[in-house]
Amino acid sequence: MSVKDVVTERFKKLCDERKITINELANISGVTPSTAYSMMDITRRDISIVTIKKFCDGLEITLGEFFSTPEFDNLEQEIK
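Above: the chain sequence. Below: its structure as tokens.
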């Protein structure tokens, strides 16, 4: 699984836990819905750390809390 895949899965899980949609996350984070849906699109590979930070702010969690999961710890190295 790629870093981008883990990021999107993490946001989906956090939205499910809070019973909000990706669109609602975008609204509370000050991000356009098109940016949110673009990030969640599996065919797109790029993801902005600024967008991640805005989503974390909207969810009232820190970047440390967001990235502190076994899924991030177990990612394979990007440099091969």
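The mean pLDDT is 92.
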